[in-house]
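Hello,

Our lab assistant flagged a job as stuck in the queue for most of the afternoon. It eventually completed. Since we weren't sure the result was trustworthy after the delay, we are filing this so someone can double-check. Below is the sequence as submitted and the structure that was eventually returned. Let us know if re-running is recommended.
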Amino acid sequence: MPDYKFCVSLNISHPKMEVKAISEYLSLQPETSHDVGDLRMTKNGRLLGGSYEEMYWSFDLCEGKRIDADEILFEEFIAIKNIEFNKHKALFNDIRTTGGAIEYFVGWFSADSINMNIFLDPPILKSTADLDISIVLCAYPEG
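-- returned structure --
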């Protein structure tokens, strides 16, 4: 049995698009966002100086929880999300071709071992690439 948990967010950045447009098009409200030109600040509202040069939009696909691989394997989760997001393929392509980026940002947590693995076979990689989505894995071994 797989011995890991994961969480995934869909992150979008772009040098010119606006958060509101992304939210309206996807019918999703981001947990974290800012527009180009917004003042840089911490989550607590403390100003950091300067302003953001790119729009950033982030939506938690796991509803704030870590998903246990015993419930669904990471690769199955991504395959399902790719099917769901396929209707937005034109938007994602437009974002990418006009200087933006779309990514699945993955927090990958070992449950009881540091020996974790996932298997992303060619059809999953292809469907992700066809959507112009990158996969960013951030592993957190136990201990």
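-- support follow-up --
The delay was a queue issue, not a problem with the job. The result is valid. The beta strands are 4-14, 32-34, 39-41, 47-51, 55-60, 67-68, 101-110, 133-140. The longest strand covers residues 4-14.
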